[in-house]
Amino acid sequence: MSGPGLKHVDSHSAIHEAALTEAMELNELLERLLLDDRKEQALEVAYVGVEHWETRTLRHAKEEEEGLYRELLEEYPEMKDQITALTRDHELLGLLIEEIKELLDTEGASAEVLTRFQSLVHVDLLHNQAEERILPER
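The line above is the sequence of Hemerythrin domain-containing protein; the predicted structure tokens follow.
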């Protein structure tokens, strides 16, 4: 069963906004460090970014899938396609994180890593908008 914060648009939106704001701040810091050719610090920030996405967004996504999405499907079976699309978004976020980790292990912090982090923000923003559109239907 999902917690009350996941079921209400305002609180759910606040969860999303806080995580995205932090992610965007990390991206800006990573970009500055890369531009200043501070590779060691950039690598540290990139790993903090990975941890952020894994502990904030992907953990939240798992809670949604195990609670909110299941509850929505039970109550509104006609939402199956929307829930499937939202779940796929979560998978894409996870795939991007795996790509980032692989790039960090093989090449270190780079513009390519930053591009992946920026893609995470964009996919998550679109995902959150879609998700918040279906919450009022509850």
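Note on the example: The mean pLDDT is 92. The CA atoms of residues 5 and 15 lie 8 Å apart.
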